[in-house]
Amino acid sequence: MNIKNICCIGAGYVGGPTMAVIAQKCPHIKVTVVDLNEARIQAWNDLDLSKLPVYEPGLDAVVSEARGRNLFFSTEVDKAIEEAEMIFISVNTPTKTYGVGKGMAADLKYIELCARQIARVAKTDKIVVEKSTLPVRTASAIKEILDHTGNGVNFQILSNPEFLAEGTAIADLFAPDRVLIGGDTTTEGQHAIQALVDVYANWVPKERILTTNVWSSELSKLTANAFLAQRVSSINALSELCEKTGADVNEVARAIGMDSRIGPKFLKASVGFGGSCFQKDILNLVYIAKSYGLHEVADYWEQVIIMNDHQKRRFAKNIIKTLYNTVSGKKIAFLGWAFKKDTNDTRESAAIYVADDLLSEQASISVFDPKVEATQILFDLNYLETRSESDNKNGVQVAVDPYEACHNAHAIAVLTEWDAFKTYDWQKIYDNMLKPAFVFDGRNVLNGEELERIGFVYQGIGS
Ligand code: UDX
Ligand code: ADP
């Protein structure tokens, strides 16, 4: 089957960039990205490309080339479903905040709504592609809904998890390590798989396109994220030991990373991993393991999250201890709020939890992030419901530049590894801070020796 019309439900961090790249690489395919959120769709259609709702290096160029040619953003969900031969589901699957599996299982209500909507609208056969990360066996639930509530048309369900990392989404989509497509072993299933393989084959070398059964594909996504997060928690666990023993975690990481069996990536000690995927996917894995009675398996993976929570809390505690056991009334500057550099995404960012701990100790926090808006920062803190919205507002200022953030501060906490931080006039920052001036580098991104020469008291992670 030759696909000419694709619809993607969900114009978020995954759906938006992924579809923009498919459209750019496949000018012969019409790609329509739909979302219920009108403001988001309006932003995707904004002529000013700096207003796109997702910040990703290179995304503006891709959108500007394809948008209006064969890439469209719309709120007309039904129409796009009806016209498409292939429908990607790329809606959010947050961790449940209620009921059975609260705090662990993925909340599938958005997925189910999508499935019901597709079933209601579809008048011709469709290939439905799961793009969102989903617990194993979700495809079968989608299939049941489609088959039982549909208009008698045929649905094939594929799992095609997205492995892009935020901040490098466009580069990852242009040259993915692999594209994974899971589908039914039946002839119809194999045809559906082939249709999606043909889409990717427009720019991805064939040997990098991997096909499996649906369950393997669904589980591979959770596993990949669990393995990556586990590496971060492993090096972070060692960072605490390094601090006690005089070893330097950067040196240890370098030494072990040169072992080709271990490899150098994902060994950077930090204040803790964030992002919408790692924690959610591991909790999901833990929940699935528990539901099969595999308690040792569940405990094993849960430890990755426990370590990550510990790392965030430890960072905040260390700031308090170093500032003479009290931060009450003290100004602490936060450089960075996003969960990593080159993105405006703040979901599960370590900054939120560190700020929360410090606010509970009555610190006054001044944040500067090159891409995150003030409303988002307050939203993130309010979401935790630790204190009233007005208390959060009183405790947190959002600065227009780093110099304002650090003016008269007792300490600086680096929470995101933005490259720009290295280029600041650190002498000027030092001159305008209270003394002694501390830097707590939660990302080991600054040059500690240089800062110490200026007069700062510098502490990185794991040294
Ligand atoms: C991750 C996976 O990498 C990607 O394949 C999947 O599709 C989605 O989840 P993402 O969350 O965008 O991507 O970012 P990633 O680069 O994996 O970083 C996650 C977190 O780990 C960030 O907070 C990052 O700062 C932290 N991290 C990463 C470390 O602290 N140390 C490291 O060495 C690497
Ligand atoms: P991700 O990081 O997985 O892309 P986001 O939260 O950034 O997640 O994006 C998911 C998008 O899906 C949101 O913009 C949300 O409005 C949209 N969405 C959720 N449910 C539906 C639905 N039933 N129909 C259309 N859009 C939906």
Structural summary, described in words:
The chain is an alpha/beta fold and 463 residues long. It has three domains: 5-204, 3-Layer(aba) Sandwich (Rossmann fold), CATH 3.40.50; 223-305, N-(1-d-carboxylethyl)-l-norvaline Dehydrogenase, domain 2, CATH 1.10.1040; 306-459, NAD(P)-binding Rossmann-like Domain (Rossmann fold, 3-Layer(aba) Sandwich). Helices cover 45% and strands 14% of the residues. The protein contains 18 helices and 14 strands. It has a six-stranded parallel beta sheet with strand order 3-2-1-4-5-6, sandwiched between helices. A six-stranded parallel beta sheet has the order 11-10-9-12-13-14, sandwiched between helices. α13 (350-360) packs across α14. The longest helix is centred in the middle third of the chain and has 32 residues, at 214-245. The structure holds uridine-5'-diphosphate-xylopyranose and adenosine-5'-diphosphate (ADP). NAD(+) binds at residues 10-15, 35, 40, 91-95, 132-133, 166, 277-280, 347. Belongs to the UDP-glucose/GDP-mannose dehydrogenase family.
